[in-house]
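Training component of the fellowship. As part of building independent skills, the fellow (R.M.) carried out the full modelling exercise for a liganded target. The chosen ligand was 5-phosphoarabinonic acid. The inputs are recorded below so that the supervisory panel can assess the work.
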Amino acid sequence: MITLNDRFAGSFDVAPYQEIVTKIHRMIHDKTGAGNDFLGWVDWALNYDEEEFARMIDAAERLKDRTDVVVVCGIGGSYLGARAAIEMIKGLYPSTGPEIIFAGNTFSGTYMKQVMDYIKDKRTVVNVISKSGTTTETALAFRILRAHMEEKYGKEGARERILCTTDKARGVLKELADREGYETFVIPDDIGGRYSGLTAVGLLPMALAGINIREVMKGFLKANHDLNTDDLKVNDAYRYAVERRILQARGYDVEMYVSYEMQMRSYMEWLKQLFGESEGKEGKGILPDSVIFSTDLHSLGQFIQEGKKVLFETVIEVKDPGCAMVVPEDAENSDGMNYLSGKKLDWVNAQAMEGTLKAHYETGSVPNLIITIPDMKAETFGYMCYWFFVACAMTCYMLDINPFNQPGVEVYKKNMFKLLGKPGA
Ligand code: PA5
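Fellow's submitted model of the complex:
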């Protein structure tokens, strides 16, 4: 369903890595490596909670005709997966389902004010998401949102429109939800933030947006089955993990994710979190970045083509973007574009990709890996998530890094809490 092509990246002899890949494959599946108590995502497709899954679908059904906008309130792993999914699957200006917007991912007061003005006269649902329940950005935004909801709908009405996704037993948010009688959904103990997009963290917002989450889980399960092999000739996710290690050994310390589809921007934001937060430790790792082409060919394209040779590109190619938009004929040809009349815009986009691959690799000596996905549908999203999860775990373990913690994230918080005068800081 997803393939890796390295014809624009140079030659790779991956065979010598088979032994280490086999060893790490066992470590992942036997849960014996560093961070092994956060490997719940490996079997999640097989043992997720069916009752809770049905509750998510029920909540979405119950609310869909009474809701204009859903505010998803969370940060990092508690919102990036949902945003990636909703934009990838529904596009940027969807005409069906409630609109999904995001809060709790910034301290910016101007942004929060815009959110509050935007939802003021709209029928609103809030889904607050926080595993720890203490993340300051999310907690502050939720305080403002909760006050608004209670003022607008009364305590009882707000209860019907606030959904909490958090730890099953612990934390301030769980206590608050129990006290107020909000419906709760669980973030499993053994699945960390950036690997939680296929739990209620991502699935509930997707369901609220009108996405068929059964299709998402179907893809996640299929990938779980297809990628349960250590064979580098079969498992392209592992080959990708190895090739990025080889590329780094060749001096490429930056990975530029590339998509030719605007609605993949947030997916790449989530990839940046997945790889950056998993791998960037102990002075090691590849720095992930992302661009949309051809848009950013008119900005960063210059650096990629001729700048310092620090980066390789990983292109996420969509085989069938699913749109039949055609360039119309213009009798006067006043813009000189008639040579493209009747051609699909997607065909033009594909030629831009082919031309860019040649420009960047053959002329610019920038290696390009190509990951091809069939479409931007729900099943593909689910499949892709597992594909990148195992690739990320493999590539981090190859570097002797724990892929599942993020100790560095605490440093800014410590300083900030002191400055804010947080008790005990
Ligand atoms: O990947 C991670 O663990 C982080 O990005 C967290 O998801 C993020 O900090 C939010 O944490 P929480 O869900 O506890 O509010």
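The panel noted the following from the submitted structure. The mean pLDDT is 97. The longest helix spans residues 136-161.
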